[in-house]
Amino acid sequence: MNNIPVFLSPNMSRYLTSAALAFLFLFSEIAQICMCSPNSSMSLPYCIPRERDALVKFKSTLHDPSNRLSSWKGNNCCQWEGIACDNVTSHVVKLDLSNPCLRLLEQSESTNDCDYEQYALAASNVDESLLELEYLSYLDLSWNDFQCSPIPAFIGSMRRLTHLSLSHAHVSGRIPSSLENLTNLRHLDLSWNYYFIDLAWKVYQCSNFSILNSSDINWISKLGSLEHLDLSHVDLGSIHNLFQVLNTLPSLLSLSLRACELANLTYPLVNVTNNNAPHQLLQLLDLSNNYLTSPVLDAVFQNMTTSQLVHLDLSGNWNLDSVPSWLSICEKLKYFDLSRNDLHGPIPDALRNLSTSIESLYLSENKFTTIPSWFSNFEKLVHLDISMNALSGPIPDIFPNMTTSIESLYLYKNHLTSVPCWFGKFKKLVHLDLSYNDLAHMECSVSSILTNLCHLRSLDFSSNKLQREHIGDSELSGCVTYDLEALDLSYNEFRGPLPTWLGQLENLKRLYLRSNYFYGPIPFSLGKLVKLRELDLGDNLFDGNLLNDIGQLVNLTHLHASSNKLSGFIPHSFGQLVSLQELDLSNNTLNGTIPQNIGKLVNLRWLSLSNNNLNGTIPQSLCHLNYLERLYLQRNKLHGNIPDDFDQLVNLVHIDLSSNELDGWISMGKEWSLIKPGLQTLNLSYNHINGSLPQNTGNIMPNLHSLFLANNLLNGSIPKSLCQNELKYLDLSKNKLSGEVPNCWRDTQSWQEINLSSNKLSGDFPSSFGNLSSLFWLHLNNNKLQGQLPVSMNGLTQLLIFDLGENQLSGTMPSWTADTFPSLQVLRLRQNKLSGFIPPQLCQLASLKILDLSLNSLEGSIPWCIGNLEGMTSLHKANATSVFIAAEAPIAYAPIAYAPIAYAYAYAPIASDDEWSKEDVKQVIKGREDDYIKILKYVVNVDLSKNKLVGSIPNGITRLTGLHGLNLSHNQLEGEIPKMIGNMRSLESFDVSHNHLSGKIPNSMPSLTSLSHLNLSHNNFSGPIPIGNQFSTYDSSIYIDNPYLCGHELPNKCPGDDSHEVPEGREYEEDDEDGKREKVEKMLFYFFIAVGFATGFWGVIGVLLLNKSWRHACFRWVEDKADNIYVAVVIKVAKLKKRMVRNNVDG
């Protein structure tokens, strides 16, 4: 091809040159954009090796249980979790290791499901390797655990820092003044290191813990760029120039001084009141929990004429006399918290001027009585909390103007009585809490209120008096879907089946229906709530079987259905609930066996199947529940041995297998080898367990505080190692233990009960028992103890029951006084070999309610001061009621109450009614010996029978007006029954038989209307038996062997008593009169029978005669019934004949 020269014109040449230059410029721009693009690998900064090594060293000092720093590997630390580098220099500029649960909190997500402890990094201190990050400007180590170490002084050398947060980091001690070098700091947060909420257990492990504090705050004045300062829960109580220093910070916008011990502030805060520098005015101020008074607050805000405050928190001061008047100046205030200040009366008018700006208002835990009408002007209000006040009556009609704004409304713990319908118009409502009121009326049902609240997420009506009609049966129809996540209707009076509309709440996560009167089967509609996490149906009247398709609720973590009437088997589908942490089906009538697939519930921490009719053995698969902490299987019919693989349950804290039919041998061998260090409660009472306790029992279970092994077949001796434990309860009663009781009991300030009764223990009474200053109950009865009673027992100052009955103790009774037993209510020394006199010092035991010294060889007279036993002297002091005295079956100890969120156990300094209800003391009242358990606290009894007492019955004994039983029988008492015995109105049993008493039976005795058991036999009483009330009902045997008694019940008639003598000649007249009366009564009886029969007969026959259609219908009915009977008889006869033929053939 020929080359043809091409000549370009000058214009064309310039055009091509311009185009080429434009193309080059465009290419360079595109290349630069690509290099700077975040998606381009070329744009990522690459970690500087020295800084990477520093971060690796810092990580090596941290304990990371959740492995959230797993990305910290490889060479480029700029890509690691929590690290940010400068895009130009590649230096690390940001280190954010804050707890990820905190980010959920900031996003207003529920934090209940986030385990702060699991995600907290832990270290013994903040390592100085961070100094290598010299370009670091952002450091956040909040919500971690630095184990009470001080804030390191080297942080003051990190001069480029603009953001520093050690909030909730568990640091302690003095704040270092070196922080003054951080002159570029804009954000400083050292808050919430005063105590720990989510990691409270750590506080007790820090021997070097001291509250984060500062005695010199002048270093803050050097931080001229500071905008946000949070020193909440830092002890600043010793600083007197705090506000003078803070007033030097020209850029401060946010100041939080919550709980800083600022009770004596007086210097004004200029940055709030400085009208000449409005750009410098504070926008957020938190002075809560400082016990500030109204004068102090007035001093802090003196001369204020304007304010830029948007957020003000004055809660938890408790000492305010009134709402500060300067609040009217805060026209831009959006958030105001005045809760927990003990303010009284109506909500004050000083809040009225906030109506144009306020969005969040918190007034809880005061004593406000009314909500004023001007509250309806708060049209921008989003969050309102007036809970825990003294509001009463119906909910006032001042909220309807807020229907377009209100999102959270808290009115719980008041005395409100009625719920209006207009709640259903709050279309933006997210949280509504009306719990713990006196609500007994609703203008609309719960379903009617819910039907249009599409965005409502939590609704709480719990602990009120709402009834069946208030829940509503109509379906929900106002929303396509409902956002409701939590519904609490517990502790009301709702009745009937559960409403079907519950099944429409498809987003429900928490449903609480405890303690109502819901009945019927658990509805299938609950099986549709697949997002449910917590379901509480406890303490209702549900019956039938558990849902077979409950396995669909795979997100369930808590299921409580205790105290209902549920029956049948535990469904096999329970094995699908793999997220379950708590399962409580106790106190029902479930039967069958515990399913084997319960071992699939690998996250279970609490399992209670107690008080059912479950049988079979404890499944081996139960031992797969490695997280199990509480196991309650008591009061069933389980048998067999405890599984051998219990050693896998390494986290068990409480075990109760009592009141079953378990057998085998107790052992501290393999099956307990791993659980015993953490075990706190072990209850195997009321089973058939054999064997003996190893001598090192106390050593291998060092944390045990409750050991119940009563009513088994245990033998051997009591291990001495139990003396040294921090035990609270020890019950080894009703076994076959032998040998001496150890004399090594140590006062740990925790002992509450020791029950060693009904064994074969011997030896002397251990003197070391007298050291147990916190002991409530001591039962050593029904053993073979010998020797004398100890004279010195001054350490048992809290003792309530002292039972040494049925032993072989001898000698005289010690002169125990009120100093020895100031709290003693039951003293039982029955059936020993005691001799000598009853010491008069016994009368000083002012709390005594049961005194049983019967079946001994005591001599002398009854102490004249016995009427001084103040615990028996009045109905009030003796807690006297009309006690129904009856034998009670033994009961097993109930499990320790479980609290889902608890960090420590607290025990009351006095014995509770529940603890009293488990105590067991034998008493002879009304002539029979019974075990008193549940009503023991209310029994008041004196039994001095079967001794060798002489003298008269002291008149002062009639002052014991709270006594239920008084037994002085089988002694050698003389004299008369005190005439004022009629004052003992609570007396139900009185026995003075087999003595030498004489004189008349007091005429006041018929006034003892509660007296149902009386025995005066075998004495020398004389005169007539009193007449009236129950004396006419007593059997004459109670008076036998009193030859000088007379009365109509006895053969001896009293002189001049004509009531039972019929003059001659009158006998037949009286018989004739009786016969006549009998004839008249018979005639009247037959007359009324005849009239009734005639009326009934003609009432039916007459209608049939007069009404033809009824007559035909009646005859047809009779014929049909006759035909049915005939057919049934024929079939039965035919079957019988066929059976007889078959039998003949077989024969």
Describe this structure in words.
There is one protein chain. With 1147 residues, this protein is an alpha/beta fold. Among the domains are: 49-197, Ribonuclease Inhibitor (Leucine-rich repeat, LRR (right-handed beta-alpha superhelix), Alpha-Beta Horseshoe), CATH 3.80.10.10; 545-690, Leucine-rich repeat, LRR (right-handed beta-alpha superhelix) (Alpha-Beta Horseshoe), CATH 3.80.10. Helix content is 14%, strand content 17%. It has a 35-stranded mixed sheet, with no helix packed on it. Helix 12 crosses helix 13.
Low-pLDDT ranges: 1-8, 26-42, 196-204, 275-279, 880-909, 1059-1074
Average pLDDT works out at 84
Beta-strand content bin: 15-25%
CATH homologous superfamily descriptor of the domain at 49-197: Ribonuclease Inhibitor
Class of the domain at 49-197, according to the CATH hierarchy? Alpha Beta
Would you tell me which CATH topology of the domain at 49-197 applies?
A: Leucine-rich repeat, LRR (right-handed beta-alpha superhelix)
Cα-atom Rg, whole angstroms? Answer: 42 Å
* SS summary, helix count: 13
Share of residues in helices: 10-25%
Terminal CA distance reads: 127 Å
Shape: globular
Strand tally, please? 62
CATH architecture of the domain at 49-197: Alpha-Beta Horseshoe
Instruction: Tell me about the largest β-sheet.
Output: 35 strands, mixed
